[in-house]
Amino acid sequence: MAAPEQLFVSIIIILVAARVLGEVFQRAKQPPLVGELLAGVIVGPSVLGFVLPNAELGVLSNLAVFFLMFLAGLEMNPQEIRKAGRSAIVISLLAFLVPLLAGVFFSQVVGGLTIVQSLFMGLLLSITAVPVSAIVLMQFGILNSKLGNTVITAAVINDILSLIVLSITLQLAAAPEGTSAQIDFTDIASSGAKITAFLGGIFLFDILFRKSSSWLPGKAESFFKKYLQTKEAAFGILLITTIAISLIAQEIGLHFIIGTFFSGLVVYKEMIGLQNFSRVYGIISAITFGFFAPIFFALIGIGFEVQSLVNSIPLFLVLLAVAIGTKISAGFVGARIVKFSKESSLAIGLLMNGRGMVELVIASIGFAAGILDVTLFSIAVAIGVVTTIIAPITSRPFVSRAKARGSADVTVIDQQTDPKAGQ
Question: What is the mean pLDDT of the chain?
Fold first, then answer.
């Protein structure tokens, strides 16, 4: 079968399986993404082998992440992100460092791994996947709430920290055997400065836009009506802008998903007019939930091969327990420190536990660099799959309870005060 035909057949199989199991889980009052992920496990190499991982599906996965993060950014408010910043920093530092250090320790003690391998496995245990957190919070309907803003901000900080540790680990791994590795702190400081400048630029744009809100909306509306008559011109312009910002983020050392998220974050309905914004939001939401979201989670399941864990079950179980236990407990303690209720703190810890595609991307880098062997890579993938399944299932009861009590932590921001209202 020709490559394009094979790709379309794979997409059909993935979508049908993901839709069916997603619907089953939805009717069972569980997050549909869990069914979509399990659909990938079933049609993938672990069970039926109908769909196998390949480069084309990898590209599709990156497109899915792009639209997921853009939609998440569109739904959120920069002001609320800034408000959540201090709390998110505390939660993120604890939820990153505790799993990292525990992962390094147990990798060496139980697995007998080298210091570089142990550091890499600890890094993989410390990750929180922003795309997974975003889609879970969207499905729970609390993305634009105090709890949702805090979780997403903490996850973004967590991913930035993971990229810094990844850079250090790759430098250690690149040292010739038998020599002591030299960490280039100048390079790390330069990367940190670029990241700070990028994030500062995003929020500076937000501030400048607010100051020009008295005259800019009318100019923008007039521009689109006068000069852009082609169908969905606003959608095309926003897509081009978002891709450009994502590429800039990737170029300075951030993952492209960070750029995509912040690009969506600073888009307001006033920029392109309420009618254009609503149309753009509707298109992106339909594409994301109708096509890319089920494919994204199914592909996580497809990347998992249960056969590769047969000879490493003890180490897998130890690291899985460490990953889950440290992430949830550290997230809980961090949330309590910044004055969240016990219920909300536990929900935050459980939501931070999802790893998903971000862990798989970093694990692939480690595998390609020769840091991880096939066994360690398989363990990393398995932990990513299991924690992605667990996060929405375990957090849902606590979120539902907080909603039932009318907790301010899960109350969606009043649209009358939200500058991105009207979506």
Answer: 84
